[in-house]
Design brief:
This protein is an alpha+beta fold. The protein contains four helices and twelve strands, in the order E-E-H-E-H-E-E-H-E-E-E-E-E-H-E-E.
């Protein structure tokens, strides 16, 4: 069974420039501990210095309720963080900050501290530039950086907001709003510390109606994030 949803995707705003901190919230519609974290992510998403992303895992789907936004590649990404951060298991709600620190997703004391700590290093990181030379293409430009750097460049498509009415599992009867819901996640290449560009075909993402996209430059695939930028998809992307 899939949750009926209503979405509002026209409010996307660019998140670019030095000091941008990526907060990934690993969550599930079937997790009773997650709604407070989902609400908190919505608050963090209003900050100009934060790129907040709602990452829906699929390992809660076995409880009889399928999260409409869950993806196995997101579960795999969280497991990658488990290895890189040295945690013993995956859990929800879990917030990953800039790929190098984590906290319980609803912890309103720990997350602000970790975000401020991450800002100090993100200000000196690589700054992706996103342009749209054609209606169905994005170009991502990365400047020169530290020679010998090996980083994965990720493309992330996400929607501004979805509201789900949940009629099964631990959150039966709840209506929950999710912010910046990740709908697509794919590698587009590798950055070696030298200036280069990538062209991305976004025609399928536009056809699916996804509202926004982000670029993450990340060491070791799921290691520390060196830089990020996000823009709405469609005319006016910059």
């Amino acid at each position: 069974m899939v949750a009926p949803v209503s979405d509002a995707r026209a409010e996307g705003k660019a998140r670019v420039g030095p000091g941008l901190v990526v907060v990934e919230m690993y969550t599930s519609q079937s997790c009773s501990s997650c709604p407070p974290a989902d609400a908190y992510l919505g608050e963090l998403a209003r900050r100009k210095d934060v790129l907040a992303l709602s990452m829906h895992v699929d390992y809660w789907n076995a409880l009889g309720w399928r999260d409409a936004f869950s993806r196995p590649d997101i579960t795999a990404r969280q497991k990658g963080y488990m290895r890189s951060l040295g945690t013993r298991y995956v859990s929800t709600p879990q917030a990953i900050i800039q790929g190098k620190a984590y906290a319980v997703g609803s912890d309103r004391r720990a997350l602000p501290r970790l975000i401020e700590r991450a800002k100090a290093t993100s200000k000196t990181g690589v700054q992706p530039r996103i342009t749209m030379p054609r209606p169905d293409r994005l170009t991502v430009s990365l400047p020169d950086g530290t020679p010998g750097t090996r980083a994965t460049v990720w493309f992330v498509a996400f929607d501004d907001r979805h509201t789900a009415r949940i009629t099964g599992g631990e959150n039966t009867g709840a209506t929950v709003t999710y912010t910046n819901v990740v709908r697509d996640l794919r590698r587009i290449g590798t950055w070696d510390g030298t200036s280069r560009s990538f062209e991305i075909d976004i025609s399928k993402d536009l056809k699916a109606g996804y509202g926004n996209c982000a670029i993450l430059v990340q060491t070791a695939g799921v290691g520390p994030i060196l830089g990020a930028a996000a823009v709405p998809m469609g005319p006016g992307t910059h």
